[in-house]
Amino acid sequence: MARTSDKRDAELVGLVNGATAEAAEALVSKLTLREKASLCSGASFWNLQSIKRLGLTGPNVSDGPHGVRRDLGSSHLGLDGSAPATCFPCACTLASSWDPTLAMLVGEALGRECLALGVSVLLGPGVNIKRHPLCGRNFEYFSEDPLLAGEFAASFVKGVQSQGVGTSIKHFAANNQEANRMTIDTQVDERTLREIYLPAFEAAVTRSQPWTVMCAYNRLNGQQCSEHDWLNNTLLRGEWGFEGLLLTDWGAIANRVKGLLAGIDLEMPSSAGVNDARIAAAVRSGALEEGVLDRAAARVVSLYLKSDAAKAAHASKEEGKEMHARHHALARRAAAESAVLLKNDGQLLPLGAGSGRVALIGGFATAPRYQGSGSSKVNSHTLDRPLDALRAAVEGGALVYAAGYEPGHAALDDALIDEAVAAASGADAAIILAGAPAERRRTEGGGAMDRLIAAVAAAQPRCVVVLSNGSPVLETYLSGQAGALALADLLFGAAC
């Protein structure tokens, strides 16, 4: 028997597909020049323009790629407090599962949370290739491998959009570093673009048709991505057959009229009417054909129609607590399936419930490193602590804790190291929670953490090291709000 949720998902897809381009074009034909121009930029930081006389209500868009960050404020950065949501493992973590179906399930869950929070388009996933280890948003991207990134991007998009919620694959294109990302000119020959930097975008577009694509801040071979005719019109729409809306990253527009000619339908956020006036003036002067504006406005209106269809199908928001519980369980499963066992000398893992006295070492035990920061940061409705999860997993609760270090402090305190060594030497096994900080400017710099690990390992040969980054070594990456429970499952055999 089909699940009720499966039936609802199918109904949502049917309703969304019913929002035809013809219906959008019919509505656009009723708009004035000023109204059409206004649709080409946002009304605020997170909402699109409304045309009340035609019943068009601007939908809401929201970050982020591993959890819905429905902003509750109105700061120009859009980084005010956000509504509680599930923080799933980051893209770098999910890709380490090598299971695209898992990405689809996470996408479906994110789509359901978007509906519950009134979000029409989720601004993700990020599918840029990991080119350099110091890129500050590598945790948001799936892989340095184009094939793997494309498989996960296509599955993630399909999952979210099965719920009647749009996605926005980003950042198009060749936006592979954060340093000077708004001004850099990325120089790449076409073969390299097609073999490395574009395949993940192509896979998502051709296999899953995301509702939107987000253009990048940078220049590509001397031309702004927001004005790049070959990239946006020839390749994305012409060669790949993209049918959706092309929008800017926030503030990425350079010349609004040139952007329209290059296929940019929507500028985000609001330009306070400045660029709307420039568009209208260009049409009146003959510098811009009105048909170009009509096409862009129709794509925007089509997004409104899809959003309205999904909202009509989502009749109730009463499943909040039940939904969060289900999604927390999925986050736990995803974290466990995505962890990577890098080394297991002597087959120490899994420890098993009867492992005797266990020393847990590391400040991440009480302040877990479970997600990145910036625009993707999620206000998780629940957060499991490794200290609590591992204490529950150890038979009889025979677990002793020593901080070893303070999260966020580059230098280590000798007294904390001594305390950690004492705890480890008096135990039957030691677990060290280590990893990289949220911000760093050099690839090296782990020497202080290495010193702690070496000291503890010398005192306790039965030593497990668990890394949280974006004698066995276990890499858990940034594993989301349920990462602690997944860690306990992994270390004590429940996930094996």
UniProtKB/TrEMBL annotation:
Family: Belongs to the glycosyl hydrolase 3 family.
Keyword Hydrolase attached: yes
Protein name: beta-glucosidase
Swiss-Prot/TrEMBL catalytic activity: Hydrolysis of terminal, non-reducing beta-D-glucosyl residues with release of beta-D-glucose
Every Glycoside hydrolase family 3 C-terminal domain range: 340-494
Annotated keywords: Carbohydrate metabolism, Glycosidase, Hydrolase
One GO-annotated biological process of the protein: carbohydrate metabolic process
InterPro entries registered for this protein in UniProt: Cellulose_deg_GH3, GH, Glyco_hydro_3_AS, Glyco_hydro_3_C, Glyco_hydro_3_C_sf, Glyco_hydro_3_N, Glyco_hydro_3_N_sf
Annotated EC: 3.2.1.21
GO molecular function ontology, one term from the record: beta-glucosidase activity
Domain Glycoside hydrolase family 3 N-terminal: 85-303
Regions annotated as coiled coil: none
Annotated Pfam families: Glyco_hydro_3, Glyco_hydro_3_C
Class of enzymatic activity (EC top level): hydrolase
Presence of keyword Calcium: no
